Structure formats: C-alpha cells, structure tokens
Amino acid sequence: LLGQILDQWFESEPLKATLATDAVIGAMASPHTPGSGYVLLHHVMGELEGQRGAWGYVAGGMGALSQAIARAAAARGAHIFAEKAVCHLLLGRDGRAQGVALQDGTEVRSKLVLSNASPQITFLELMPQEQLPKSFVQRIQQVDTRSPVTKINVAVDCLPSFLAAPNTHDGRPLPHHQCSIHLNCEGTHLLHQAFTEATHGHPSSRPMIELCIPSALDPGLAPRGCHVVSLFTQYTPAVLAGGRPWDDQARNAYADTVFDCIEAYAPGFKASVIGRDILTPPDLERIFGLPGGNIFHGGMSLDQLYFARPAPSYSGYRSPVPGLYLCGSGAHPGGGVMGAAGRNAAQVALEDFRRL
C-alpha cells in the first residue's frame, strides 16, 4: 500500500498527498489500494537530462514530440500516412502479418508490422479472432482498462493568481507557474474520498486536480498575455450511476465543479476562462483509441505488469501472429512518455527481420 510507504518516510500530510497523486494518476485506484506503490515507482524511476525522477515539458506542445519522431523516421526513408485509419491487418496463408489495409482501400505491404495501438484494438478489432489462441483472446478481453481521468484543456486571458502566492504586478510567470500544481490534495484521505465516489458512479465532488500551465515556459503556445492551462482530473467513472451517459450537461456540470475548486485557490480564474475542452473517459476512448479512456492502454496493476503485460508468455513484444509486434503502452513496461516499449519492440523486430 502506498499509504504505508509514505507514512514510513514522511510526516507532512500535504507532502504525502502530493506524492500520492503519482501513485494513482490514470488509475482507478486509491492510495490505499494494494499495488498503488508501484505506480508511484513507475513515475519516478526515470530521469530527465540527468535529474532522477524529473519530468519535463515538450517545447511546442506534446505534438512536437510526435513530429520530431516523424522527421527522424522520414530522414531514414520512412513513409508516413497521416490521418489514414487502419481497417485491418493483412495476413498471409501461413498466418504471418503481411501489412495493413487502410479504410480507403489502400493496402500497405510489409514483412513486419508494429502496432502502437492498444492490445484491444490490435487483437480484437484489426484481425479475425480465430487467428489467435482462445486463451490469449480471453486474456486481452479481461484486461482491466478502467480509467478515472477527465482531461480539461483551458484557454485563459490572464495568468492564474493563487492565494498562497499571488502574482506580481507585471504578471510574469512565477516559479510555481512552471511546475505541476496539485489541488484538493491536502491529505491522502481526500484522494480516497474522491475515489470512493467514483466507484459508486458519481464524479468526485472534490476531484484531484493536477494543473499545468505549459505556456508559462513556452510562450509560443498562446497569444501574448494569454495562457493555456492543462487540467488532469480524477475521479470520473466511465459510466455514470444509473447508466446515464456523459452528455454535454454531465460534462459541463463536472467541469464547473473543477473550476469552482480552482476558484477557491485562485480567485478570478473562472472569469479568465475564454474556452474549454472537456474530455471524459468515453471521449478519450473515442478520439484517441484509449480503451476505457485509460492512458496506459490498461491498468498498471501488479497482475498486468512485467511478464503479464499484455498477456503471460507475450511480454516480449512478439504476438501470436508471426511478424506482428506490440510497441505501445499496452506492452512492457507500460505507460508514460518514455519510449521504452517502442525501443525494445524495435530491437526485437530487428532481430527477427535479420533472420528473415
């Protein structure tokens, strides 16, 4: 249990709760859920520019990272088909992967196929299941993909000014504006309460909020004097109590709750909002192909990690289909913007390619 680990090392409840957010981020779990300590380890085990446990912002926004990878691949001769949805995997008579078919009818032939899609889309939607072992299909169907995350992107016409550290008269970003700001995290019991509400089908009345202002570090993301605010919030159930859908009324009601919470810390925030984009778990699934809205393509619980990710005997990036490899967050070691799964999968695929 994460709670026990934090109690051993720290006395300050706000500090413990702040650390606890990285143990439940993206997970339908509480700090008191067994195995939550690993999720914290997963988020701090890496490093950034030699600083252990650090994370960073991508200049130009997260899309700039994808564009940098694309440019590097194109420089080596890769052909990139953007905005071209894959319809299904092409299989030869021997059952080997031979490429992909796009929804416009185009067929892209290749000796190897690496899928960055989730295991659910890769194995349950893009290929006939009779081509796979029944036990494997059952395992993929049973992967826990519950997600508590609602992402809210906000455009504001001035920098938020927090009661704990008011802005200066010139309105320039202060050090705390350039970090992750955790709200409603004064105690781990608040996180547990927020989690409990969601397990009963109700969006948290006092949600956990991780607030970032990337434009404080990267002014090119917003017009002069304006800013973009990224809100990573939880807990929100994928299906509301009584089977109610996440319609516009439900989305806006939850976003209003989040904004009311921020307003209590930073008066004037609500008046500064000039636009907002609300992405609930079903929205994250529909738009980005995240199963259940899960940013890790599947829970980072102990029964879904290491040799069991995505399924026992298939943690080495190879799949039951020869020539098909899994290289996304659903593969070992799991989610997070680190590229480990892709790099490892590429090495395995290259080994097999040389044998071909």
Automatic annotation (TrEMBL):
Tell whether Ion transport is among the UniProt keywords: no
Extract the SUPFAM superfamilies matched here. Answer: FAD/NAD(P)-binding domain
| Alphabetized InterPro entries for the sequence | Amino_oxidase, FAD/NAD-bd_sf
Q: Does the keyword rRNA processing apply?
A: no
Key words of the record: FAD, Flavoprotein
Report TM segments: none
Question: Highest taxon of the source?
Answer: Eukaryota
Its annotated compartments are: Mitochondrion matrix
Binding partners and assembly: Interacts with COX5B; this interaction may contribute to localize PYROXD2 to the inner face of the inner mitochondrial membrane.
Please describe what this protein does.
Answer: Probable oxidoreductase that may play a role as regulator of mitochondrial function.
Query: What does the similarity note say?
Result: Belongs to the carotenoid/retinoid oxidoreductase family.
- Protein name per the record: Pyridine nucleotide-disulfide oxidoreductase domain-containing protein 2
Gene giving rise to this polypeptide: Pyroxd2
